[in-house]
Amino acid sequence: MVAGTAHLSTPDELWPGVPASWSRTLSVPSTASIELPGTHRRWHVLDNIDDLAGREPAGTLLCVHGNPTWSYLWRTLLAGATSASTVAAGGPWRVIAVDQLDMGFSERTGTFRRLADRITDLGDLTDALGLTGPSATGPLVSVGHDWGGIISLGWASRQRERLAAVALTNTAVHPAGFSLPPALSLALHPAVHTWGTTTSAAFLRVTHGLARPPLAPEVRAAYMAPYLTVPRRAGVGNFVADIPAAPGHPSWAALASVSEAVRSLDVPALLLWGPKDPVFSDRYLRDLMDRLPQADVHRFEGAGHLVQEDRDVATPMFDWLARNVLAAGGGAASPASVSRPVETYTPMLAELDSRRGDRSVAVVDMAPGASSTALSWAELAERVDDLATGLAGLGVRAGDRVSLLVPPGIGLTTLIYACLRLGAVVVVADAGLGTAGMSRAIKGAGPTYLVGIERALAGARLFNWPGLRIAAGPLSVRKAGLLNVAATVPSLLAAGRARRGSVPFPPADPDADAAVLFTSGSTGPAKGVVYTHRRLAAMRDTLRSTYDLRAGTALVAGFAPFALLGPALGATSVTPAMDVTAPATLTAVALAEAARAVQATTVFASPAALVNVLATSGALDDGQRAALATVELLLSAGAPIAEPLLARVQALVPNASLHTPYGMTEALPVTDIDLAGIRAAGNGNGVCVGTPVSGATVAIAPLAADGSVAGQPSFEPGVTGEILVSAPHVKKRYDRLWITQRASVSIPGWHRSGDVGHLDDAGRLWVEGRLGHILTTPAGVRTPVAGEHAAQGVPAVARAAVVGVGPAGTQAAVAIVETAPPAKRSGLASPALAAAVRTAVADATGVDGVGMDVAAVLVIDAMPTDIRHNSKIDRTALAAWAARRLAGRRA
Amino acid sequence: MNRRTTTPAGSPRAAPDAVAGRRVLVTGTSGLLGGAVAQLLADAGYGVRTLQRRPVDSGWESVQGSVADPDAVARAVDGVDAVIHLAAKVSFTGAWSEFVATNIDGTRVLLSAARAAGVRDFVFVSSPSVAHFGSSIAGAGAGTADPSRAHGHYARSKAAAELLALAADAVDFRVTAIRPHVVWGPGDTQLVQRVVDRARAGRLPLLDHGTALIDTTYLDNAAAAIVRGLERMGHAHGQALVVTNGQPRPVGELIAGICAAAGVRAPSRSVPGWLARSAGSAIEGAWTFAGSRGWVHDEPPMTRFLAEQLSTAHWFDQRRTREVLDWTPAITIDDGLARLAAYYSGR
């Protein structure tokens, strides 16, 4: 059952979601060392064999619960194993979920069973079921949760020949330095252990309370059902007492042996994780990833310990099994996918290396008041090597993740190239994600090292971010101690200088991870996006050839991702004096001073920054205006920019060609258009973003009436659908988001952008909005952008968004407008404004002569937007707000 | 009743030959919607008979009597091919027994008489309120009528009657229920005139600033959909269909539109919906009590039902209705408001 769905038992169900036919009880000879010879034990299991109706299963999943749950935890897997989609993908599967002895509805043995006994018990049971043993056949998949994880892995390591895969949800196997979380330490304390776990039902209640959102009362009751009395809870208490917290514990040896054996499991592995788990936190996930390096991982952001209750784990489980255990594999490439020659690969550090003797300026940091700091290419190359040597001395190795919480500028540039030098993976979570978003991003990426400015280190301490802490600048001893800092960048540079040449820098594997960047988070929690060295280099090459950025170009780096590529491009880069985490703080003067410092010919900026540049352009003096007049290329990246705004920018940089690339964190950039191109394209359904950049191909996946993507990739003009991208600089994968990654490449050969648009006769791409923002009206699927542009054409409207409210397929279109000047209070638009917006939208959105019928026009005081760009309207939040307003309740 | 030659709203696809000689009994023709349905049928070539409590000169064949009177009803259904039943007690107040007599017993009498007389088709005109229970409705389907949960005597009695009607559906006696939602148009005394009168008197507050999104049905569209129910009986029988314009609008905007059409000032005061709902309950109780003593004779200014209607979203999924009836509304809200304005300016 997916979280939150009310489900009452039907007459043929024993518990909500569990048909009576699944429940089996059997007597099993017990060979555990604590048993007398000849002992039999009564087991209860849930088994979906009846659902197979005689069909041969693709394999069998043995699911082992932890403490204090029972087989009920796995009911969605039993149901999903025979679903139509599972069968279509090579299923069905047999699923057996056990109740361990003394747990669930299995026998209360009166014994104290330890880890080794429980592993033996599980083998006894599978032998009796005929799943294992001499005559058994068919692949086996072990599935475990909580303390059932290690038991299932112990069992799995004894079934090597038939073991096809292992799957784990929030669990741990790490004995060395196994520091118990405070919650468990308390539970284990002799003073409270028996009371907390057995005498009272406190431990049960606390565990059931971990579900997010809360369990439905009937589901909570089902979890409680086997443990209603003190004698029935004895196993719960014994289970907790058997946690080997220290080497002297009787189960320590068994735990150590299983956790080592895990390293030798070379079968496919899947880790499905709920990070909001007070006990089995991310550190245990990282430990498991270390032991099972082949594992596919999905962290369900926001889910907790009972991840099976919080999210649908059945669909991804069987999808994963189909792809990793069944022969089917990846499937044929789609006919429209693009085959490309292998590009020549030039490492990111090649330019820097070739300029070791170059005394000309490489990087400049502007400070307020036109003062600046600069490094030559020779100095930068030396610094990068020294820092790399210093980091290596601290223990940083190839493949280690290093989170960089440092604002753009020389410091960040040096760190990035030092990490690339070492083959370490840079994790760049910018403050634009907001504190909570940044915290989620860093925890998700799980860096081994964390380099930060003082404020970031304070955040790391406050929010318990992972990673050995390194200060980006000098720090007093007292502060270093306070912030628990292991080193500072200046000290590492000094150490590296002292040992210069002592550390070899073998070239990085081009296909190893190089960087984790993050999506803006305007469409849900920010996602980590992994680039390899080869793909980063391809991004550099695409920028170079699209914009003719040769060595010797001087650029103003006002837009972070591209700015970091300066040294790789061989371009001199200058960081203007601004708070780069707030693009709207870039002033015209700061921009001009930065341009003047290096005689810049190229400017990278975001639309929000340009808005502020225009607003502050009155302060420019003649010299500053002259500096801007030498700019030849201005790139506005990060979000679409309207033609009128761009036209005003043109007046500031009269000799520049103005370009606005379209792209995403997963592919930067995808297409490009200049001001002349925007004017030539004129008005249409969406925003014209031009033609694909060098090396990139764009196709469209058409939409079905319910808004889902259906059909083969198409290059046909006028077909609206999801925008697909193929390019050498597309991301390698999403980070620890197997399900998301799988969805993003479900059309083979393409990255699914999640944006909606169409191609025109001239091969130009028009973006019509996000796939998640389309409206499924009774008149068909509609995209919002054209209507929004029309609404913005109404006098008094500054910004507009069109969202769908109501059930899919019968949504009502609602226009939400921000007025100029902004309204003091949000609410219904005046009848006159409503009529004007309604007419404008209807006229602009005619499909087969029928325009979009806007049900309501609401005025909002300020649109919700993303922090990073301050320009992407959060339509999902807006739609929810509009729905609440229009329901007649107070928003 | 404004007797006029209507342009049939929607697209009457039944050819005149198909309807020639078909005779239809329409009850409730003294009401605005019933009159429009009769007129539309007559314009399309049907033979129209009405059942009237008082003798009126409508120009149509008429039987005098009440729907609860078996003898009158037997005469009314004699020789007709189909019945469209609109007659009902529509009020926010009154004793439950009155609603039972007209709405439930009247429907029962009419159903059994029609079946006995060999009538083939029966359109029961109902209300979406029979299946919705006070919470906001956003894009919902028709749902099943439930007298135990419907709010107010009217909705409760119509729910019971609709269940009776649909239960009678059979191969040789086909029954459909058409539920138009908030019908308005020129000459409407229920919603339009009340809004206009109260606004003119300055006694019409908006609830929660009038942001609740509600569906309405322009009169001609409602009449056309009811006639389509008869014409598409082969597809429609056995089910209930909610009919609206398919153009939900914020209630405040609708009221403003109606006021503008009538040339009165739109309300600007707003009271919270929760306050109106509880006040509505109190006023409704007081009015019912006063009415039972003969102290008041008009409708109360606010009832809980009305407060719910005006402060919570009420809009519906029209896809199935349009598919079953093979029909789309011909008059948009803006067209309807223009006609309303013409009506008021011509007065």
What's the topology here?
The complex is a heterodimer of chains A (891) and B (347).
Chain A: E1 13-15, E2 18-19, E3 23-29, E4 40-47, H1 49-52, E5 60-64, H2 75-80, H3 84-88, E6 94-98, H4 115-129, E7 140-145, H5 147-156, E8 163-169, H6 182-188, H7 190-199, H8 202-208, H9 217-224, H10 234-241, H11 252-261, E9 269-273, H12 282-291, E10 296-299, H13 307-310, H14 314-324, H15 350-354, E11 361-366, E12 372-376, H16 377-394, E13 401-405, H17 410-422, E14 425-427, H18 434-445, E15 449-452, H19 454-463, E16 468-471, H20 477-482, E17 485-488, H21 489-498, E18 513-518, E19 528-532, H22 533-547, E20 554-557, H23 560-563, H24 566-569, E21 572-575, H25 588-598, E22 602-605, H26 607-615, H27 622-629, E23 633-636, H28 643-652, E24 657-659, E25 662-664, E26 667-672, H29 675-681, E27 687-692, E28 697-702, E29 721-726, E30 733-734, H30 738-744, E31 751-759, E32 765-770, E33 775-777, E34 780-782, H31 785-792, E35 797-805, E36 812-819, E37 827-828, H32 831-844, E38 854-859, H33 875-886
Helix pairs in contact in A: 4-5, 5-11, 7-10, 16-17, 16-21, 25-27, 31-32
Chain B: H1 16-19, E1 23-27, H2 32-44, E2 47-52, E3 61-64, H3 70-77, E4 82-85, H4 96-116, E5 121-125, E6 137-140, H5 152-167, E7 174-180, E8 183-184, H6 192-200, E9 206-207, E10 213-214, E11 217-218, H7 219-231, H8 233-236, E12 240-243, E13 249-250, H9 251-262, E14 270-271, H10 273-292, H11 304-311, E15 314-316, H12 319-325, H13 333-345
Parallel strand pairs in B: 1-2, 1-4, 2-3, 4-5, 5-7, 6-15, 7-12, 8-11, 9-14
Antiparallel strand pairs in B: 10-13
